[in-house]
Design brief:
The protein is built from 17 helices and no strands. With 394 residues, it is mainly α.
Length: 394
């Protein structure tokens, strides 16, 4: 009998902490935008391009990293990637040239592109027989970091100005040091190495299912990234204070983190397709409920919409890994990376809509997109739930 692999909880904790910081940095630029617009009269389109530059570089490179990491682990990617992104973003508040800002945003994105596939693989390696639940926890920590970003960064920029970005390199240095000393070693990261022809065969065999999954993720990512970009500008135009705006964005994102955990649990019991379709279809009316009500009821609608939008976040990653089970890092790169990058690229169009027809119109378009993603999710393969598979295996 094969000995049971121990679960390295301390390593998982450090990797999850690093993911929380990494995704907090990933939501860095949207928090800067209202201050950049006030200081430089940046157009909505240019603001969207700045966020898209980071999203595209952080996303499109991930499948490449994923493919090579399926072949051979490179532990240095997690600590160097974290430090690189922290340094690049800490410089953004010190420059005034727009093209240089776009360059820094693009370079910063490479750091998170290096971190995510390797860190996800590390979690799988040290999680013993609890890989699914611990990977979901790792992803949830990232979503919490995303949610904390407006609470931490907006007061910093409002109090000390954009030049305070230089101080945000400090947590990146500390977490990079933790990863340098405590991330799993290269000699435990190897595995069965698929050849390029085997990878291409897997992609060809599952092409229809992967097309549906990546389309759903791209549209959801467009709605998600678009809201992160446009909502702070929209709240600013509504004369809402930066602090109040940051609280609303935090509510949406933190609810999304909780929704992601619940979504993983529900999909295990009732099936991934059912969870993905129903949650996305429900998101659109919830967002419209937020925009057409006031007070506490409006905040409740926003929280429910955030939870519904992100409840399928980790579920779609698992769905892609089930479609190409021998290429899990590549699947993670395609879903968390490439598909998300497509959505990030299209945010530029949303920014242009905001310039031409107003921010309210751009927000309304973003609210409608999850419904479109939910309809496309109907074309996904309907696999048995994890609960049903466990029962059948008894």
């Amino acid at each position: 009998m094969k000995p049971k692999q121990p679960i390295e909880y301390s390593t998982i904790g450090i990797l999850s902490l690093a993911h929380m910081l990494n995704d907090m940095y990933s939501n860095y630029l949207p928090q800067m935008l209202p201050f950049l617009v006030a200081a430089t009269a940046l157009s909505t389109t240019r603001a969207a391009i700045l966020v898209s530059a980071f999203t595209i570089s952080s996303s499109f490179i991930q499948p490449i990293f994923g493919y090579f990491l399926d072949r051979q682990g490179k532990r240095w990617l997690v600590h160097v990637g974290t430090l690189w992104m922290a340094i690049m973003l800490s410089l953004t508040g010190l420059v005034t040239n727009y093209l240089l800002l776009v360059l820094l945003a693009t370079l910063a994105g490479l750091g998170t592109a290096a971190f995510h596939p390797q860190a996800s693989t590390m979690i799988t390696v040290v999680s013993g027989d609890r890989k699914a639940v611990l990977l979901s926890t790792f992803i949830a920590f990232g979503n919490i970091g995303f949610a904390l970003s407006p609470l931490l960064l907006v007061p910093l920029f409002q109090t000390y100005g954009l030049s305070a970005t230089v101080y945000t390199v400090i947590p990146g240095i500390l977490v990079a040091l933790l990863l340098f000393f405590f991330a799993p070693k290269n000699n435990v990261l190897g595995g069965n190495v698929p050849t390029l022809s085997e990878v291409l065969h897997s992609l060809q065999t599952a092409r229809k299912e992967l097309l549906a999954i990546t389309s759903v993720i791209a549209i959801r990512a467009l709605a998600y990234t678009g809201l992160l970009t446009i909502l702070p500008l929209y709240f600013q135009a509504q004369n809402l204070s930066s602090i109040a705006s940051s609280h609303l964005v935090f509510i949406m994102l933190f609810s999304g983190a909780i929704g992601g955990i619940l979504g993983g649990y529900i999909s295990d019991r009732y099936g991934r397709k059912l969870l993905i379709v129903s949650s996305l279809v429900l998101t659109t009316p919830l967002f419209y409920g937020f925009s057409h009500t006031q007070g506490i009821l409006s905040i409740v609608f926003l929280a429910l919409a955030g939870a519904s939008l992100l409840s399928s976040f980790s579920v779609t990653v698992v769905a892609a890994q089930e479609a190409i089970p021998n290429n899990k890092s590549l699947a993670a790169g395609l879903t968390m990376g490439f598909a998300g990058g497509i959505g990030g690229l299209l945010v530029i169009i949303i920014g242009h809509i905001g310039d031409l027809y107003g921010l309210a119109t751009a927000i309304s378009v973003l609210f409608f997109l999850p419904l479109v993603a939910g309809i496309i999710a109907l074309f996904m393969k309907n696999r048995p739930s994890a609960k049903a598979e466990r029962i059948a295996a008894r």
